[in-house]
Design brief:
Layout: H1 2-6, H2 12-31, H3 35-73, H4 78-96, H5 98-115, H6 118-124, H7 129-170, E1 177-186, E2 189-197, E3 202-212, E4 215-229, E5 232-244, E6 247-259, H8 279-292, H9 297-325, H10 332-359, H11 365-386
Antiparallel strand pairs: 1-2, 2-3, 3-4, 4-5, 5-6
Helix pairs in contact: 3-4, 3-5, 3-7, 4-7, 5-7, 5-9, 5-10, 7-9, 8-9, 9-10, 9-11, 10-11
C-alpha cells in the first residue's frame, strides 16, 4: 500500500498549491523583523551615523584650517562662513561619501560581533549566512535610498549658496567672459560668437547659419549683438545672405531686431554647476547641452551617472564588509578596520581614475562611473564565497 502511494502520479494543482503556501509562509516569516534583525539594524544605523558625525567633525576642522587664510583675505563674514558654507558643506560631504561611511560602519560593528563570538553563536543555531545578510541589506537599502533622494532632489538646492560662497570668498570659478562659442539652437541652425561678455549682455562677431541637410541656405552675421530680453536680440552692422541655387540675395543694415532662441546662461556652464541641479533638471539640461553642442557636458554626465551608482555602492560595500569582518581572526577589530580602510582607499582611487577616463573621453561615462562597482561586486562575491557558513 505504501509502495502504491509512492508511485502515484503527482497532482500539478496540489504541487502549485503547496509551493504557493511555502511562499506565503516565507512572507509571513519575514513580515516582522526578529529581535536579531532589529539588533543588527540598530547597530548598523547607529554606527553609521556616529561615523558620519566623527568624520565630518574632523573634516570641518581640517577644511577650515586650510581655507582660513583665503576667508580672511577676501573678508568673508563669520555668519556666511557658518551658515552659507559649512551648513551646506556638511550634508554635501556626508552624502558624497555615504557608501564609504556605510562600509566602515559594517566593518567596525561586525568585527566586534565576531570578536565576541556573536556571529558564531548566530550561525550555530542553524541560521544561514544568507539569512544573516538580510538585516544588513535592509539597512544598506535604507541608506542607499536616503542617499539617492538627498543627492538627487534635496542637496542640490543647498549647493547653490555653498558654491556662491566659494566663488566669492575662496576661489573664483565663474567667468563673465567666454570665447569661441558654437551651439546648435535647433536642428540645422548653428550660432557662433567669437566673444560674449555677461556683464553687458553683448556678443561680438556673431553668425547664425541655417542648413537643409548639408546645404547652407542662409547666413546672418553681425559686428556685435545685444540681448534686449530673453530671446530678443538686436544686431548691429548686420549682413544677411540667402542662397537659392546659384543665386545669392544679400541684405545689410545698421540694426536689426530678431527673435533667436538662445539663453546666455547656457554660455557660462561649468562642471561646478552640475551639483546644483536635481536629477530631473540635470537630465533635461544634459540633453539640451548635447543637442546644442555646448562643451563641458562630460562633467554633467558623470554627475548624473554617479547619482545612480552611489546608492548601489552602499549595498556592494556592505556585502564586502560583512563577508570580511564576520570571520574571527587573531588581529580582531584592528585588523579588520585596517583592511577595510585599505579597501576604501582603493575604491576611492578606482572612482577617481575611472572619472578621469570619462572626462578625457577615453571611456564612456556610464561604464567609467559603474566600473568600480563592477570590480568591487566581483570582490564581494569572492569574499562571500569564502565567508564562514
Amino acid at each position: 500500500m505504501d509502495l502504491e502511494t509512492k508511485n502515484e502520479p503527482r497532482n500539478p494543482k496540489k504541487t502549485v498549491k503547496s509551493y504557493l503556501t511555502r511562499i506565503v509562509d516565507d512572507f509571513r516569516r519575514f513580515k516582522y523583523f526578529s529581535i536579531l534583525d532589529r539588533y543588527i539594524m540598530r547597530k548598523y544605523l547607529s554606527t553609521f551615523f556616529m561615523c558620519i558625525i566623527m568624520i565630518i567633525s574632523i573634516s570641518v576642522v581640517f577644511d577650515y584650517a586650510e581655507k582660513v587664510d583665503d576667508f580672511s583675505e577676501n573678508n568673508a563674514p563669520m555668519r556666511a562662513i557658518i551658515f552659507d558654507y559649512y551648513f551646506n558643506f556638511i550634508p554635501y560631504f556626508a552624502n558624497l561619501f555615504t557608501p564609504l561611511f556605510a562600509f566602515i560602519s559594517v566593518i567596525f560593528f561586525t568585527s566586534k560581533m565576531a570578536y565576541n563570538t556573536e556571529i558564531i553563536a548566530m550561525l550555530s543555531t542553524g541560521m544561514s549566512f544568507k539569512r544573516l545578510l538580510v538585516p544588513y541589506f535592509m539597512s544598506a537599502t535604507l541608506i542607499g535610498l536616503m542617499s539617492f533622494l538627498l543627492g538627487g532632489f534635496v542637496i542640490p538646492a543647498s549647493n547653490k549658496p555653498r558654491l556662491d560662497f566659494e566663488d566669492k570668498y575662496y576661489r573664483k570659478f565663474r567667468s563673465e567672459l567666454v570665447t569661441n562659442i558654437q551651439l546648435e539652437l535647433e536642428p540645422g541652425v548653428v550660432a557662433y560668437f567669437e566673444r560674449y561678455e555677461e556683464n553687458i549682455n553683448r556678443g561680438y562677431n556673431f553668425s547664425l547659419e541655417k542648413f537643409e541637410g548639408k546645404k547652407l541656405v542662409s547666413r546672418l552675421t553681425a559686428e556685435y549683438i545685444d540681448m534686449d530680453s530673453l530671446y530678443h536680440w538686436h544686431l548691429v552692422n548686420y549682413v544677411k545672405r540667402d542662397f537659392k541655387g546659384m543665386r545669392e540675395i544679400m541684405t545689410m543694415g545698421d540694426g536689426l531686431d530678431s527673435v533667436i532662441k538662445m539663453d546666455p546662461q547656457d554660455f557660462f556652464i561649468t562642471g561646478e554647476d552640475a551639483p546644483q541641479m536635481t536629477n530631473t533638471k540635470l537630465y533635461q539640461y544634459l540633453r539640451r547641452q548635447k543637442e546644442r553642442g555646448i562643451p563641458g557636458a562630460q562633467k554633467f554626465e558623470n554627475e548624473y551617472n554617479n547619482r545612480f551608482a552611489m546608492p548601489f555602492a552602499a549595498l556592494i560595500l556592505t556585502l564586502i564588509g560583512v563577508s570580511l569582518a564576520s570571520r574571527k581572526v587573531r588581529g580582531g577589530t584592528g585588523l579588520h578596520l585596517g583592511f577595510g580602510i585599505a579597501l576604501s582607499a582603493i575604491y576611492i582611487l578606482f572612482c577617481t581614475v575611472s572619472s578621469m577616463f570619462a572626462i578625457n573621453g577615453t571611456m564612456p561615462s556610464l561604464l567609467a562611473i559603474w566600473l568600480p562597482n563592477i570590480i568591487f561586486t566581483t570582490i564581494g562575491i569572492i569574499l562571500y564565497a569564502r565567508a564562514p557558513k
